[in-house]
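Researcher: Structure for this, please.
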Amino acid sequence: MRKLIFIAIGLIFLVNTSVLAQQEIEMLIMNRDYPGALYLIEKEISTNPSAELYYKKGVVLNSLQNYGEAILAFQNAIQTDSVNTAVMAELAENYAILGNYQDAAYWFEKTLRLQSENLSLLAKNGRNYISLKDFKKAYNCFSDVYAKDSTNIYWNKQLAFCAFRVGKRKQAVELYSNVLEVNPRDYSTYLNLVKLFEKGKEDSLIIQTFQKGIEQFPADAELQGEFAKFYFETKKYEPARLNYEIYFSLKGDSIYPVMLNYGISLYFTSAEEQAVTILENCVIQQPNDPYPLFYLGLCHKKLRNFELSEGYMKAAIEAATPSYLPDFYHYLGQILGLQRKFPESIAALQKANELDPTNIEALFEIATTYEEYNSNKTLA
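Model: Predicted structure, token format:
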């Protein structure tokens, strides 16, 4: 009898010790003393391993951004408790963080079969499918979320993005517009809406969206630069020039495409001398691009610098002809000649010579092909 009493007392002591250790671990985690918590967890696991301890170890390692070790801890937990949805969800999220979206999808789906009403988890599953570029499944996830809660603007943005990717442009526009009504300071949504309106060639709505965005973010160079680019691409050069100048005043980057567009806008707004300065810098950066050469030719034509204009135009024509094209026509001519397709061969060789007048070999082959062609006609 006394022996049984001692055993019972020992068990009570062990249980109480374990409970105290668990409470201390939770307190350390709450106070973000992760090294201390990890030390105690390892100590407890060595004597009394459990799914709960492995789970807590995984949570601590996750907080320390040691995601690979966290996954190992959660895997140990799941071996002991195979239906623990908290562990499954953590496994899914840690796999996703490490870019293993396939395994993350497996665990998200498995968890959701047990917790189908967990909207946060469903949304995370949707984000994971976006990472997998499986936009149809992502769209289905966020549609299910939206059907149960249409008030979460972050989730609504994800649904809008997925709607756009699966070809539901009208729904995407409606969702993004609603997001801006609730949160007009949502910067990226202005740019997303512009892209959607561009698909529908809705210029007036694009302008309105840019204007609303700039109203919220007047010192933002990117919005001004994108607005200028839109005007440029729609051949509205006066507002394009104006917006590029605002963009530069806001310390926007003077990258080559921007400077080229600005230089061309200057030409079309009768600021040829300014355009020349900008376009000459473009030629220095990209000497083989025909566009700045072409517009420099046009600028100098307007300025009545005809010799310069001629030089730039010739350079533009030369730059517009790919260096490999004469060789292509030359070899084509040879191949056609070998098949005794003489008229086609001569035409190809003439094109090669036209594109590269310095190719003496092509000239010689034109002559010999003519000779063989005429000889064949005489024999016939």
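Researcher: Any notable elements?
Model: The first helix runs from residue 2 to 30. Residues 349 and 364 are 10 Å apart (CA to CA).
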